[in-house]
Amino acid sequence: MHSDGIEVIRRVLISPSFLVGAIVTLCFVVIATVTLFWTPQSWIDIDIANKLARPSLAHPFGTDHFGRDVLSMLMKGSHNSIVVALVAVGIGVGLGVPLGLVAASRRGWIDEIVMRAADFTFAFPALLSAVMITALAGPGAVNSIIAIGIFNVPVFARLTRGAALVVLTQDYIAAARLAGRREIRIAIEHLLPNIASVLIVQMTIQFALAILAEAGLSYLGLGTQPPNPSWGKMLNEAQTMIYIAPHLVIFPGVTIAIAVLGLNLLGDGLRDALDPRLRRAR
Questions:
Q1: Longest dimension (CA), the chain
Q2: If we measure between CA atoms, which residue out of 80, 84, 87 comes closest to residue 31?
Q3: Parent domain of 16
Q4: Splitting the chain (282 residues) into consecutive groups of 10 residues, what average pLDDT does each group show?
Q5: Which of 101, 132, 100 lies closest to 118 in space, CA to CA?
Q6: What global pTM score does this model have?
Q7: How far apart are CA 72 and CA 145, in angstroms?
Q8: What CATH number corresponds to the domain at position 207?
Q9: In what helix (H) or strand (E) does residue 21 lie, and over which residues does it extend?
Q10: How many domains does the chain have?
Q11: Which helix (H) or strand (E) holds 42?
Q12: Residue 21 CB-half CA count within 13 A
């Protein structure tokens, strides 16, 4: 392995932020995977006789107003949140990165169109844009994915363009052009590998924001629809019972906070490892 690669891995492994963030994120991924075939209790069966039960051995996180197990609902909700965030960020990367590369490579009117479109999108707050789109297209997980994904496109387009413009000033890019290589080949062979670290860090940040956006949309009734549980929907349903059954608010809220914190720590650790100049500047 190249010495630079070994040094990056060493910095990653000794970064407390990365280790904590990676452990937290991995736990949520494992939980989301496990819910595909197992949860401690049924997250969909109604048991009115046990509604609003306090945390116990049978129900570690208690039950909701329908008698459903809160722990099982949180586990299932992690699966829905991760899927929505993953696909939404994938849309942003899949569309935004090519647009940013084209804008940086071609410049001129193409660059102007892409950047003005990005500016127009940024003129509207992310959650407000998502609310508008889901309100027009209808509530649901699919429309939430589209709404969040659309906002991610200009984020990755602008980031890719800015990072690519720096790389394009390097001498080896001029040498590649003199050798007769086409712009698309230069973008794939030289630009993408050199800006990959920046994109990876941004992906972790956008993943955390996507989870928050999905929770916000579900809280407003525009995201994941019943009977599928969602962290935001659980908070919405619990807000009128906060004094009667505070566990219905505490556990979903803490879960969202831990998931977002883990992803932010992961991104912070990756940024320090991939660009040690930022760490020295602190």
A1: 77
A2: 80
A3: 3-281
A4: 59 78 94 92 88 91 92 93 93 93 85 86 74 79 86 91 87 80 81 87 92 90 85 91 91 95 90 60 44
A5: 100
A6: 0.87
A7: 23
A8: 1.10.3720.10
A9: helix 16-34
A10: 1
A11: none
A12: 24
